[in-house]
Amino acid sequence: MPTELCAYGFSCASMMMLPGLTAIECPNKDTCGTIIQLTEEDRIELYRARLEDNRRIVERVRMTRGQTARYLLSTRGCPQTPETLGVTQSIDQLRDAMALLEETITELSAGYVAPEGIEAHRYSVKRPYATYEYNKLTAKKAIFPPQLKEEEVKVIHLSRDEDPRNIVGRSGIERRNRLLAIVTQLEAATNVLNRAREVASTGSIDEVVAEKITRAQL
Fold first, then answer.
1. Which of 168, 151, 150, 149 lies closest to 159, judged by CA?
2. 124: which strand partners?
3. What is the per-residue pLDDT across 42-91, written as a single tens digit (0 to 9) for each?
């Protein structure tokens, strides 16, 4: 049922010190007047105008308070959309960036990629007549398949600087480092996106608005 309230917002029961006194029963009602606050379920009749074939047509509709508010703000409140606020554009930019990143990852994966923890080292071999520089891949534990032995080994020899084995091996380390850097940045981006989702979904919008209104009244 509709609830009658004082037009000035007074509590009639407190003003007259009569618990349970309603605005419709208040002795001051002729002075203050009363207003009616409809519940969400109660409907009111409104006149609404619209254009059809360049003719102004007025129609009478029945709406709840919530429907009335939504209609008013949807027609006069300059309603926005994710597209007009730039959300859609930002998502499209993320998709484009991901597509370019996937292409980069595919290119990096086209060659040899070294395991984590593997590094390349240059070492010297002294001979009676000269000293030679060589390169090798080294691991902290034996992970490489053996060439002659039965057990895995920690070292793969890459020969001299200009040898393709050395170039490909060191390129594999660089590819690995770039891929791991991508992982780090993707994890950071995922965390940012998760925070954005949390901000958007934290609490009911109605509850948040009601709380802000209550705080403003204190």
1. 168
2. 133
3. 676 666 666 778 887 777 777 776 777 777 788 778 899 999 999 999 99
Predicted local confidence at residue 46, as pLDDT: 62
123 forms beta bridges with: 134
Q: For CA atoms 56, 58, 63, 65, give the dihedral sign.
A: positive
pTM of the model: 0.68
Cβ proximity of 26 and 12 under 8 Å: yes
How many Cα neighbours within 13 Å face the side chain of 133?
A: 6
Name which of 214, 135, 208 is nearest 169 in CA terms.
135
Q: How many residues does the chain have?
A: 218
- Structural tokens at position 201: 């979904």
Taking residue 157's Cβ as centre, other Cβ atoms within 10 Å add up to 14
In the structure encoding, which two tokens stand for residue 18, read together? 């009569």
- Tell me the pLDDT band of 25, cut-offs 50, 70 and 90: confident
**Among 88, 87, 68, 89, which Cα is nearest to 77's?**
68
| Structure tokens given for 129 | 């007549």
| Other CB atoms within 10 A of residue 22 CB | 15
Q: Looking at residue 24, what DSSP letter applies?
A: G
pLDDT band (50, 70, 90) for residue 210: confident
